[in-house]
């Protein structure tokens, strides 16, 4: 057995109810507008006049054509924007790829330099003692490259 609330809710979702609601809203808006204009007149303000808009079929056709042209222009603009975005994304991807390749090259160069340095530093004499010449040369190179000592 449905409750009274369920019955009211059921009535709310019918076409007749919605039509009545729309009509009530329209009459309410018209009444409010009429009252607003009356108060404006009483207070001495000018009442905005309704501008007659003579609309012919030719005007309507012209407006529709203009709107379709604007829609087409907008579509063309959107397509251009998409193309530009794709182009920019491709450029950014290419730049990122180039930067990654450069990093790899730099890393390989540094690794080779480290290997050369370690081979120089680990040189030994015939008796197995470490050679001091390359170590001293390395220290001198560090001192010369440091900005404190080159003034």
Topology of this protein?
Elements: H1 4-12, H2 15-43, H3 57-121, H4 133-145
Write a structural description.
By secondary structure, this protein is mainly α. Among the domains are: 12-45; 76-122. It contains four helices and no strands. The radius of gyration is 43 Å and the shape is elongated. The mean pLDDT is 87.
Give the helix/strand class. mainly alpha
Annotation, overall tally of beta strands: 0
Mean pLDDT: 87
- The proportion of strand residues reads under 5%
In whole angstroms, the N-to-C terminal distance is: 101 Å
Q: Helical stretch count? A: 4
Short description:
It holds the Pfam family rRNA_processing. Residues 69-151 are annotated as: Disordered. The protein is an all-alpha fold and 151 residues long.
Question: What keyword list fits this structure?
Answer:
4 helices, 151 residues, single chain, mainly alpha, 77% helix, elongated
């Amino acid at each position: 057995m449905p409750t009274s609330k369920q019955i009211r809710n059921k009535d709310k979702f019918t076409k007749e109810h919605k039509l009545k609601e729309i009509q009530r809203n329209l009459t309410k808006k018209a009444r409010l507008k009429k009252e607003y204009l009356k108060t404006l007149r009483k207070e001495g303000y000018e009442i905005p006049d309704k501008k007659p808009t003579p609309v012919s079929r030719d005007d309507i056709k012209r407006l529709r054509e203009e709107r379709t042209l604007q829609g087409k222009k907008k579509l063309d603009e959107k397509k251009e924007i998409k193309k530009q975005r794709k182009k920019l994304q491709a450029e950014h991807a290419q730049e990122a790829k180039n930067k990654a390749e450069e990093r790899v090259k730099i890393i390989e160069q540094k690794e080779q330099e480290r290997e050369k340095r370690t081979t120089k530093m680990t040189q030994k004499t015939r008796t197995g003692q470490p050679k001091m010449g390359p170590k001293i040369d390395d220290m001198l190179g560090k001192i010369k490259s440091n900005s404190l000592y080159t003034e």
